[in-house]
């Protein structure tokens, strides 16, 4: 089985990523709230490459949305597909000394990175 973690970084990454999720959701018959409404079992064959299946048959994108400013992520949250994402999919990083970035909440960062295989976390 192949699983892809989709990283959307910055304004451009989040805007392109949002369009990606609109298209991939439509291809797999998943509505804007993550519920399968397709008409063919073929649509569900490889859905687990991009989505995790949550409680109640809801499909959640395997994605992390990252930005320095909350505005872009607020735009995604308020969009037609905003309900697809879990709240912890959104990472707002704060500029730190020397322009080195850090996640604003260490426990939250560890939880978000836990979806990656340990060998890939570095």
From TrEMBL:
List the source organism. Maylandia zebra (zebra mbuna)
A cellular-component GO term for this protein: microtubule
Q: Which family does it belong to?
A: Belongs to the tubulin family.
The record's InterPro entries line, in alphabetical order, gives: Beta-tubulin_BS (IPR013838), Beta_tubulin (IPR002453), Tubulin (IPR000217), Tubulin/FtsZ_GTPase_sf (IPR036525), Tubulin_FtsZ_GTPase (IPR003008)
Q: Where is the signal peptide?
A: none
- Give one GO term, molecular function aspect: structural constituent of cytoskeleton
Where does this polypeptide localize? Cytoplasm, Cytoskeleton
Which PANTHER family did the record assign?
OS01G0282866 PROTEIN
* Name the record gives this protein: Tubulin beta chain
Q: Pfam families of this UniProt entry?
A: Tubulin
User: Which biological process, per GO, is one annotated for this protein?
Assistant: microtubule-based process
- What's the domain of life for this entry? Eukaryota
Looking at the record, the residues that make up the Tubulin/FtsZ GTPase domain are 3-91
Record keywords, A-Z: Cytoplasm, Cytoskeleton, GTP-binding, Microtubule, Nucleotide-binding
């Amino acid at each position: 089985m192949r699983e892809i973690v989709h990283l959307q970084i910055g304004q451009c990454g989040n805007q392109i990523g949002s369009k990606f999720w609109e298209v991939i959701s439509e291809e797999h018959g998943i509505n804007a709230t993550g519920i399968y409404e397709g008409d063919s079992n073929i649509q569900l064959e490889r859905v687990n490459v991009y989505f995790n299946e949550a409680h109640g048959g809801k499909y959640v994108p395997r994605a992390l949305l990252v930005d320095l400013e909350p505005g872009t992520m607020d735009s995604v949250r308020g969009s037609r597909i905003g309900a697809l994402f879990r709240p912890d999919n959104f990472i707002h990083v704060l500029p730190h000394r020397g322009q080195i970035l850090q996640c604003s909440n260490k426990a939250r960062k560890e939880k978000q990175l836990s979806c990656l295989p340990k060998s890939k976390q570095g």
